[in-house]
Specification:
single chain, mainly alpha, globular
């Protein structure tokens, strides 16, 4: 997905999938940054909103 995002950096679907992959492999910082990028492009994206908030809550909660 990283290669796809490089080819189409504003493709929200690619970015959401990439962020999900980052989550799965434990790269929370990269996942958060990628979800933030999605929200910059599409502020109403429900998957990005939910995932970003969930990760932030986990970060705050320890």
């Amino acid at each position: 997905f990283e290669a796809l995002v490089k080819m189409a950096p504003k493709n929200v679907d690619y970015l959401v999938h990439l962020a999900g992959l980052y989550e799965q492999i434990g790269k929370t910082d990269k996942a958060l940054k990628t979800y933030q990028k999605v929200l910059d492009l599409d502020p109403e994206n429900p998957k990005a909103q939910e995932s970003y908030l969930r990760l932030k809550m986990q970060e705050i909660g320890g």
